[in-house]
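Example 551, ligand NM2.
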Amino acid sequence: MNKNNSLAGKGIEQTIFWPAVVAVLCTSVPLMLFPEAGSQIVNNLFAWITGTFSWLFLLTGVASFAFMGWLAFGPLGRIKLGAPEDAPEFSTGAWITMLFCAGIGISICAWSFAEPIYLLDGPPLHLAKGTTAATEWAAMYPMFHWGLIPWAIYLLPAVPMAYYLYVRKGNVLRLSEACRGVFGGLIDGPLGKLIDVIVMFSIIGAVGTSLGLSVPLVSALFQEMFGLEQSFLLQLGVLALWTLMIAWSVWNGLSKGIQTLSNFNGVLALLMLVFVLAAGPTLYLMGLWTNSMGLYLDNFFHISTWTDPVEKGGFPEGWTVFYWAWWVAYAPMMGLFVARISRGRTIKDLVLNGVIWGSVGCWAFFAIWGGYAVHLQTTGVVDLLSILNNQGMPAMVVAVMKTLPFSGLIIPAFTVLCFVFLATTVDSSAYTLASISTRELNGYEEPARANRILWAVLLALFGVGLLVVGGLKAVQTSTLVVALPMLPVMLIMAISLVRWAREDFGSALDSKVCSLRLSNGRHEVVDQLDAAPAAQAAPATVMAKAQPASN
Ligand code: NM2
């Protein structure tokens, strides 16, 4: 699989590669040169987008959730993403870990502590500050922001993309292909290129947000461990170290680099969660978690559509809408990456495992780490809120760490966790960006190494741009801007998938687990129930009449 590791081996698609590179340079260089003007523009954009499109982002969330539910439990769920003889490429455990680590990164290490504290100070739904209800809602709301709806958004593009790759046997790793069911041959023209550049821009903006938020966090942890001065140089140093690690990972590709880092971090994260659960107020944390789940389910539709239309207090815009945009911006990366690792699974398997395990994973962080922070604040052990307001998020996270037993060990372990978590998100992104800008690539190949490394470096550069401008606003706005054009793309992909499935499987969808395979340029619908599981050469029954393999 690694035979194509030179740029010459796998040609670069110039018409996508260059516009994307130019777009990165045109945004990050001016931001570095004119930070003040940049942040002014950024603030205005934030206000305009959230003021105008909040309802659309919220509706997209609910619609994605409904669509994914239908995919899992409806007829399309039975479609196998692969030939009948294709076994899943990775074991289910490793697959879920990779999926989780690609989509969840360093941000959870900061937000799981900070978000509930922010919400204690500014509760949702006009609850009065300092009340019992406000505390319960502050513990629950982040679980909504990192729960079923965002995971449904996250995995929506993955399904049409995996369908294109493994059912239709596509040979390019680009999301524009997943829109072909709607646009047909138009995808081969400028429209297809436009979609791919939007996708690349979205990935770059999303990763930029993560970098902008996380570099200060890890710098603060380094500062704490080694007694260093917080400086721009330290931040650059952290970024350089990161770039090296990411470069190592993308250089080694999917199964060696990315999988190794994901597995390592999966284990480390689990240990850190168990440690805080055991060392912290265990019963309080379990009780709060259980309570949050009920509160969440009870209010699911209310909070999913809460636009605060009368009072317009700004809560939904500042929190839910921003979050949905952030997840949407990451969705193309997830789509391509998860599609690439999901060969041999059914649509139901992908959707249910992804949405449920993704959410449960995030809930565990917010229940344990978030609950611990809530406990520290409400019992008055540490005033995290004033640290957050006066010194910022990184300092607050360090303050939480210092309250834990063995903090001399825990802080380095947490630093490593953050460090690797960002790497696993950025390496998947660099891998995906390289795939999009490769001319031809089927689901069994990898993009050229030089191309992968180049994107790791460009992402780091964009991160520096956002760091120079500074401030959460710049970072958040870049997300909103890149997410907006992705909304129609998501809709088109969903329609494409349904059209393709109807075209390919027809009435066979109604009763059987089906798999579509290509033989002699014709599609056949295969009754998967009769076919032996893995590695069987020939399928048992060919049910439906063969039809020509179109697009
Ligand atoms: N999401 C999950 O920085 C990161 O952790 C990547 C962020 C979209 C909020 C994912």
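Summary: The radius of gyration is 23 Å.
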